[in-house]
Amino acid sequence: MTIVPAADYLVVRTARRLEQKTKGGIVLPEGGSQEELVRGEVLMAGPGRTTEDGKLVPITVKAGDEILFQPYAGAECDFEGERYRLLQESEVRAFVCKTAKEKVPA
Question: Which domains does the chain carry?
Fold first, then answer.
């Protein structure tokens, strides 16, 4: 079985964070502040959203893209022992590109 996203939803695997500690040795919980963005890899993307007049607006995010999003965006999902995040395309804040000249999706 597999997760297949509907409409403009994405299935994202989030990067594991390293344990963070303060200078005094206090371990900070995973999640950090709300301002901190989370990095993830898009595993699958839906076909896009449908407008009120029935036209399909294709999604610009594709499988393999690395993205940044807010920590509480979307919904978390456990599926076959793995943890995923289901996000809408509008919740993507930025793309992670290898170089500044790399083309960013429109």
Answer: 1-15+36-96 (2.30.33.40)
